[in-house]
Structure formats: structure tokens, C-alpha cells
């Protein structure tokens, strides 16, 4: 007489072996080691993108305000004003003054620091210099806009 066992046959048992589970854990670990550093560096990319956006906004404001000054006949005047988006923008030699540039651009939470000849928008949080500097026009020069992204 054959004895019957209630235990299932080994061939019909389904599941993962210990080796398969360890290999999956190793593969996931390698992928995490490669992918995680990329996610941690997103802050630097975001600060650099904000800096580039301000740079573009300043360049656009210079062009628009100078065009408005030319149209109104103030293109080479020592002083003047134009209205941009409801804001009075002070001009010197047909281009925005440092204070005029700060009024012309709404950069949200990035505050403009207005000096005698420059306006600076600094992006905080980086390990170095991350800013845009607008230097106003003089009687012999046109304005300059310089972005710096070292250490964003």
C-alpha cells in the first residue's frame, strides 16, 4: 500500500530563491547609488535656472525701456522716464538707471540691491556667487548685464 503524504511536491512550490532575492537587492542598490546623487544636485540646477531667468528679464527690460525712450524722444537725454507695466522707470542716457531697473523687473522673492551705478540680483543658497549685475549706462558707455553662476 502506498502512503500518501499531505506535503506538497517540491516541483509545484512557487516562489523566489534566496539567491534571486539577493540579486534583486544588489541591483536596486546599484541603481540607487547612481540615481540619488542626481536628485540631490537639483538645488544647484534650480538656482542656475533662476539666475538665467533674471538675466533674460534684465536684458529684455533694457531693450524695451531703450526702445520706449527712443520712441518718446529721450534716447540720448541725460535723464528721463518711461512707463513700463504701470511702473515709472527712471532713465539715464536712454537706458534704465539702477533704481529704474529695479522698478522695471518683478523678480518675486529675489530682492534687488540697488547701488550708485549697479543693481544686483543675488540667488541665495549656493556655495559661491550666483547673481546678475546690471551696470547703468554712462555718457560714453551702454549698460552691461553680467550673470555669474559659479557656485549656484
Gap between N and C termini: 83 Å
Percent range for helical residues? Answer: 25-40%
Structural class: alpha+beta
The ordered H/E elements are: HHEEEHEEEE
Mean pLDDT: 85
**Which strands sit side by side, in order, in the main sheet?**
4-5-6-7
Q: How many discrete structural domains? A: 1
Strand content: 15-25%
Number of helices: 3
| Largest β sheet strand count, sense and barrel closure | 4 strands, antiparallel
**Estimated radius of gyration:** 31 Å
Structure commentary:
The protein is α+β, with helices and mostly antiparallel strands and 152 residues long. The protein has one domain. Helices cover 39% and strands 20% of the residues. It has 3 helices and 7 strands; from the N terminus they run H-H-E-E-E-H-E-E-E-E. The protein has helices at residues 18-40, 42-71, 98-104, and strands spanning 80-84, 87-92, 95-96, 112-114, 118-122, 131-135, 144-148. Strand 6 (131-135) and strand 7 form a beta hairpin. The longest helix is centred in the middle third of the chain and has 30 residues, at 42-71. The protein is rod-shaped. It starts with 17 loop residues before the first helix and ends with a strand.
List keywords for this structure.
152 residues; alpha+beta; four-stranded antiparallel sheet; three-stranded antiparallel sheet; 7 strands; 39% helix
